[in-house]
Amino acid sequence: EKEKEEKEKEETKPFEEEKENKKEFTDSTFKDVKKESWYYDSVKYCFENSLMEGTGDYFEPDTPMTRAMLVTILFRLSGSDAGKVNPFSDVDADSWYSDAVMWASENGIVKGITETKFAPDEKITREQAVTVIVRYLYYIKADVNEKADLSSYNDSENISPWAADAFSVAVKAGIVTGTSEETLSPDLSTTRAEIATIVMRLCENILK
Question: 189 pairs with which residues across the strands?
Answer without folding.
Answer: 125
